[in-house]
User: Which sequence fits this backbone?
């Protein structure tokens, strides 16, 4: 592909091409999702995805922001359950092609919920940055005529409510906002020094539920995944991961668990990877990263045939809480899906918005009406903690 820089943007096709000085000037590498090691691991293990990076620059040629783009084939069978009626409407209205995948250009992290697609340096005009980003995406496509013909739509994800006064700049570039499943987020209380402190502030019903989960899962053996044993465990972990993703309503791309090797190699104990065993068989796993003062839950794998009997998923959720407390962290980001059960351990929804644009102007106008029908799946929000006096 053609990568011609402009007065406001530099374009790169690989992490290896981005000079060290840019990372230093942006001062973004303390954030796990904008560390070159993380981005390189994704690149290396997902050859089916086209990666591009945009570095926005000011009048002095100093970097002001970095954005990562991914071009993916979005297969219609990734839309399931409650969203199937939207897929059918989309086909009838010719928004979604009939016999081929939708080719999406995505700005954002397709494997994690949250604002992990654009990093803006401190003290920058964020509204101006968003405009420059939208213009730079258009420039990138205009340079690559063959690719421009293939791209069906553009997606910029995920933004929290507090960011919408900035990201709504994208409406001026004919992007349409729509709500997606929320990120379930647990704020840890400062006086939680141990897991027992966490249990102590729970209402009786939820404390009993937690203790029952530990009782049901007491025969599970938990083992850390290390660089020494990861090759032996990955095949079964991958199988369990695929069982989880097969139940998801919406999935932009499949994650290659080989990527965990790079994470463990570069991050060590700051990348959490544990397996759950029953009778010498892996029946579950959890993954996550300590990212500054938060624990971000990543993918899990579950043997659903044994899940209810041994409370595998519930135990994984409580273990995230225990890890975060022991590491003296402030927040756990549990991500999307299973919102109700996550709320039963104290997580609350953080609304997220995406922006979508179809390349054809008439279809894009129809798309606006289509997206207005897209709503997060409703769930019952639990409130497990006692009211503070």
Assistant:
């Amino acid at each position: 592909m053609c990568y011609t820089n402009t007065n406001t943007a530099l374009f790169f096709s690989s992490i290896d091409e981005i000079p060290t000085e840019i990372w230093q000037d942006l001062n973004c590498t303390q954030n796990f999702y904008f560390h070159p090691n993380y981005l390189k691991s994704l690149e290396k293990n997902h050859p089916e995805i086209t990666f591009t990076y945009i570095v926005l620059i000011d009048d002095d040629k100093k970097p002001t922001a970095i954005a990562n783009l991914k071009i993916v084939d979005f297969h219609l069978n990734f839309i399931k359950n409650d969203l199937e009626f939207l897929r059918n409407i989309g086909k009838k209205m010719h928004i979604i092609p009939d016999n081929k995948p939708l080719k999406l250009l995505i700005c954002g992290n397709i494997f994690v919920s949250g604002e992990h697609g654009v990093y803006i340096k401190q003290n920058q005009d964020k509204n101006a940055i968003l405009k420059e980003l939208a213009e730079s995406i258009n420039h990138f496509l205009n340079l690559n005529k063959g690719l421009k013909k293939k791209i069906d739509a553009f997606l910029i994800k995920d933004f929290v409510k507090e960011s919408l006064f900035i990201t709504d700049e994208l409406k001026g570039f004919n992007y349409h906002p729509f709500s997606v499943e929320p990120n379930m987020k647990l704020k840890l209380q400062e006086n939680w020094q141990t897991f027992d402190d966490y249990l102590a502030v729970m209402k009786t019903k939820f404390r009993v539920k937690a203790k029952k989960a530990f009782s049901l899962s007491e025969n599970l053996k938990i083992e850390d995944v290390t660089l020494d044993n990861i090759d032996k465990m990955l095949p079964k972990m991958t199988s369990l991961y695929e069982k989880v993703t097969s139940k998801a309503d919406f999935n932009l791309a499949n994650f290659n668990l080989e990527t965990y090797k790079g994470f463990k190699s570069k991050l060590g104990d700051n990348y959490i990877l544990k397996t759950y065993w029953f009778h010498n068989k892996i029946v579950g796993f959890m993954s996550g990263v300590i990212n500054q003062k938060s624990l971000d839950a990543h993918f899990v794998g579950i043997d659903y045939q044994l899940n209810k009997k041994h409370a595998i998923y519930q135990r994984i959720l409580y273990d995230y809480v225990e890890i975060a407390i022991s590491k003296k962290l402030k927040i756990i980001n549990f991500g999307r899906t299973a919102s109700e059960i996550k709320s039963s351990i104290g997580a609350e929804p953080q609304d997220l918005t995406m922006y979508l644009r179809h390349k054809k102007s008439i279809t894009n106008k129809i798309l606006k009406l289509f997206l207005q029908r897209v709503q997060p799946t409703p769930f019952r929000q639990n409130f497990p903690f006692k009211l503070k006096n």
Notes: The first strand starts at residue 9 and ends at 12. The chain has a mean pLDDT of 91. The radius of gyration is 22 Å.
